[in-house]
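Fill in residues.
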């Protein structure tokens, strides 16, 4: 017999609704305190939560739904989705609620209107632009869209639970910004950065910076590298799934210079990049401050993708070595506009035009002679 079928509504109410307070969402949070949680069946806990809602609604005639606040909805949504969504997504959703509460206050969800959503969107946009101005970096509208997408899902859950009748985030339009060409460093700029790094932070940091350029890996991925990941016999870096952002294994080819750097670092450190992500960014910003170059550390990865794509390598393989699941991300965000390469191609236009005009002139002269 199912664990759920062995518990009556009265028993469930006795455990979950002591003195009939706290409201519908409080019930979901309190499901953990009932023995139902010990059931190995996810469906049992889902049924229990659903029945708990029905019990409280019948006891309170739905009046408690109006008292549900944003913070309580955040806690209940995380509790209800623990077994269905990844922990990272749940944490991101909680962070979205925190940002919403920070902007408009911990108000009742029944009082939230599309106007509040617009205020939230504008505040987040202002914060993003301020950060972009202060740090001299370009930040897309992704964070705004991500916040609202997660909040829309949470409020859809509230609608299904009959806590509200309308989702204020359902009419939110996706923020679209004018596309900007990705920034990458030129060979002269990259050589200057490595040289400055050698002067200010020492030979080892300069080698680590060059290593990032030769591997095209993310900053955090570099911090997780182990010497055992490098296969010198096959001349590859076998990056395991747990070290990558997309949680997929990745293979990066090695060249002689990469092997030389790894062997040098191996004589001094227990791992190739012995610094944390924040330290790497701090060191890089110190080096960049001594130059007039714009950009950020992540642009080293974009430099890698731009340079290898200029050799004629298929964008599909560029996306593969970068670890992108969607090549479109590589096309739009990771390949800079190769001005020098395009200029060389444009130089061929006058030559072709001159050749065409010369051919036309000869044909005209030949027709005149025939006449």
């Amino acid at each position: 017999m199912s664990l759920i079928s062995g518990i009556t509504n009265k028993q469930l109410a006795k455990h979950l609704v002591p003195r009939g307070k706290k409201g519908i969402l409080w019930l979901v949070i309190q499901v953990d305190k009932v023995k139902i949680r010990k059931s190995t069946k996810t469906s049992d806990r889902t049924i229990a939560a659903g029945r708990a809602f029905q019990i409280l609604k019948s006891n309170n005639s739905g009046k408690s739904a109006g008292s549900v606040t944003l913070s309580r909805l955040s806690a209940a949504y995380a509790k209800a989705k623990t077994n269905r969504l990844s922990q990272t997504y749940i944490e991101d959703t909680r962070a979205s609620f925190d940002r919403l509460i920070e902007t408009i206050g911990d108000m009742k969800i029944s009082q939230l209107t599309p106007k509040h959503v617009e205020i939230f969107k504008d505040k987040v946009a202002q914060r993003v632009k301020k950060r972009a101005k202060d740090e001299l970096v370009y930040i897309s509208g992704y964070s705004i869209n991500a916040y609202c997408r997660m909040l829309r899902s949470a409020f859809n859950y509230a609608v299904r639970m009959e806590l509200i009748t309308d989702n204020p985030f359902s009419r939110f339009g996706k923020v679209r910004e004018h596309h900007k060409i990705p920034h990458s460093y030129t060979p002269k700029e990259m050589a200057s950065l490595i040289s400055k790094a050698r002067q200010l932070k020492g030979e080892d940091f300069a080698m680590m910076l060059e290593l990032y350029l030769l591997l095209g890996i993310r900053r955090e991925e570099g911090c997780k590298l182990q010497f055992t990941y490098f296969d010198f016999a096959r001349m590859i870096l076998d990056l395991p799934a747990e070290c990558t952002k997309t949680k997929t294994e990745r293979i990066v080819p090695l060249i002689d210079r990469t092997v030389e750097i790894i062997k040098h670092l191996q004589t001094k450190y227990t791992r190739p990049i012995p610094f944390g992500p924040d330290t790497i960014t701090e060191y890089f910003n110190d080096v960049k401050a001594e130059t007039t170059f714009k950009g950020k550390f992540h642009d080293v990865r974009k430099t890698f993708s731009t340079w290898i794509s200029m050799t004629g390598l298929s964008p599909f393989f560029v996306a593969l070595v970068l670890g992108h699941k969607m090549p479109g991300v590589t096309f739009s965000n990771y390949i800079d506009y190769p001005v020098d390469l395009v200029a060389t191609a444009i130089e061929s236009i006058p030559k072709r035009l001159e050749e065409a005009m010369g051919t036309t002139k000869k044909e005209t002269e030949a027709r005149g002679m025939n006449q």
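The longest strand covers residues 236-239.
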